[in-house]
Amino acid sequence: MKKLLCLSLVLACSVAFAQNQDEEDKKDWGTLTGGFESIFQWYNDDTGLGKFAEDEHVRSNNYLKLDYNYGNWFAGIQVESYAPMPLLNYSPKLDDTGIAQYYAMYKTKKLEVTAGYFYEQFGSGLILRGWENRPLGINNSFRGGRIKYEPSNSLSFTALYARQRDGFEVSEGEIFGFNSEIDLTNVFKLEASSLSAGFSYVGRKEDIPEQVQNTGFDEMTNAFSARLDYSGNSFYSGIEYIIKSKDAVVNTQRYIENFVEPGNGFLINFGYFQKGLGVDVTLRRLENMSFFSEREASGNVFNENIMNYLPGLTKQHDYLLTNIYVYQAQPTISVPDPSLLKYGEIGGQVDVFYNFKKGTPLGGRYGTKIALNAAYWAGLRGDFNFTDRKADIDYFGFGEKYFSEFSLEVRKKWNRKWQSIFYYVNQYYNERYIVDKLGVVNSNIGVVESTYRINSRQSVRAELQHLWTQDDNGSWAGATLEFNVTPRLSFYVNDIYNYGNDVEDEQIHFYNAGGSYARGATRFAINYGRQRGGLICVGGVCRFVPQSTGLTVNITTAF
Questions:
Q1: 127 lies in a domain?
Q2: Which of 422, 421, 441 minimizes the C-alpha distance to 431?
Q3: CA 441, CA 16: separation in Å to the nearest integer?
Q4: Strand partners, 269
Q5: Which residues lie closer than 8 Å to 171 by C-beta, 6 or more apart?
Q6: Which of 265, 290, 306 is the C-terminal boundary of a domain?
Q7: 335 and 273 in a common domain
Q8: CB count, 10 Å around CB of 3?
Q9: DSSP assignment, residue 137?
């Protein structure tokens, strides 16, 4: 608690300094900006879910970020406190209070030099991406040095050397990177379109453990990426190809004896758009493309040491029941036994958006918007020889079906006060291959949402949801009611009920009630209720959370 008080004192001093900035501008002392976030949870015993199994019921995550700028110079720190313990199912390495990140940077129009912690992404992130996502407990920033140089508007180069953040420490593995971006628009004298290319290299150097030495891979693992992007008046496209040198195959943080394989990835995205119509297609193939700054981190449940960005490419849903069976990318070769062989993934998704014009039979007075999404993912087809430890993988072969989904969304405005959303989702979810749980889930989900604007400041929103399935835990029903009192103040209650569970004691209501208040750059939110156990996903990246009941308080501010 003393550490939290110290952190609050630092925040107060920082805010006071920022508020007096206008008076000090004439002294040209530069500018200080920052933000603070605190997430507090109090976990309770629950007669429905059972006794809270951990010793510490009160936990909190706290983040204070400060950035200073003076002319071409920039500097910053991020102080973090996890007291008395981090939130449930965050990494146990987050067990301290102190300066977690810091940096100094010099930047001009053409040159940028950074020392300390930084985030970086090459291309789409398939080869390298460091990022922070606090709800998922992810902070995969890099600590080291980075130079960016733009000799012209058509050329951009980045070079870096770093180790990756690992709790309050850094990884054993060293990371080397180079990236180039080339604008080819002027080279080909394009007037109504643009064309660009990119080339990247990433190397990861880590000592080879004694137990797997002389098995056919080097300390340095090299990955290369090439990409090409085009954009015209109504059409765009992009293609990226990645290769990765031979490396040991690691499953659930354990080396597979004498099993060494290279990796590769292939990504295509293209689309067409015009007034009232949009089509987007994304296709991807991943083979042994897990990339960690420490090999033995592969498969860890806390998303630590991940060097690249491999989200599940499916529609990102907004509703509680549509997020129960969520697809996660399957880039890893995994051969635990002959009944469960995985060599990577292949598949894609298609999005279609269409607006029915106002005044037409389907458009009505205000028009109607529809969105269609279809996604299909399967494992790569292949064979594995357990004696020779060799995998024979087809490049475009579709193997075991992992996941498929079809969704239809209709948005309709009835009058100046009423508007509705109708949403239908059909899912196929192969639990055996996605989460290593026996069974396949076939489900249908329906959602009806309506918003009524009482006046220019107040509104009421209601949701009704239902998930039909005879598989896994059976069917669910859900509802939400939200009241926006003012643009700053809102309250809500929601509940999802697993009424179809075959085990009567597990037919549980997961209820929540809460609200939020915002003023300026400060927001306060509070809720009490039950957390459904399972995957929590943001942007196609997931982490597992257990069932729990308790109070959550969230405070964020920026200055």
A1: no
A2: 441
A3: 55
A4: 238, 282
A5: 163, 164, 165, 293, 294, 297, 305
A6: 306
A7: no
A8: 15
A9: T
Total of domains in the chain: 2
The reply to whether 393 falls in a domain is yes
Calpha distance 300→425 (Å, rounded): 31
From residue 19, how far is each of 31, 345, 386 by CA, in Å? 11, 52, 66
Cα distance between residue 308 and residue 120, in whole Å: 10
Of the candidates 180, 177, 219, 182, the residue with the CA atom closest to the CA atom of residue 202? 177
The label of the residue with tokens 């180069």 reads: 157
What one-character DSSP code corresponds to residue 19? H
* Distance in angstroms (rounded) separating the CA atoms of residues 106 and 323: 43
Residue 350, in any domain of the structure? yes
Q: Are 345 and 284 in contact (CB under 8 A)?
A: yes
Which residues is 402 bridged to in the sheet? none
**Do 414 and 266 fall into the same domain?**
no
Full residue range of the structural domain in which residue 173 is found: 142-306
Does one domain contain both 422 and 441? yes
Boundary of a domain, candidates 306, 330, 355: 306
Whether residue 230 is found in the same domain as residue 185: yes
Considering the domain architecture, whether residues 347 and 243 belong to the same structural domain is answered as no
Same domain, 296 and 149: yes
* pLDDT-based confidence at residue 1 (cuts at 50, 70, 90): very low
Range in 165-169, 366-370, 542-546 with the lowest mean pLDDT: 542-546
pLDDT digits over 412-441, tens only? 999 999 999 999 999 999 999 998 888 899
Whole-angstrom Cα distance, residue 541 to residue 308?
A: 12
Establish if 250 belongs to a structural domain.
Answer: yes
Q: Are residues 210 and 329 in the same domain?
A: no
Q: What DSSP string describes 261-297?
A: EEEEEEEEEEEEEETTEEEEEEEEEEES---BSSGGG
Do 241 and 200 meet the contact criterion of CB atoms below 8 Å apart? no
Q: Is the pTM of this model over 0.70?
A: yes
Same domain, 260 and 374: no
**pLDDT tens digits for range 193-238:** 999 999 999 999 999 887 777 677 889 999 999 999 999 989 999 9
Please return the burial class of 267, using the count of CB atoms within 10 Å of its CB with bins 0-12, 13-18 and 19+. Answer: buried
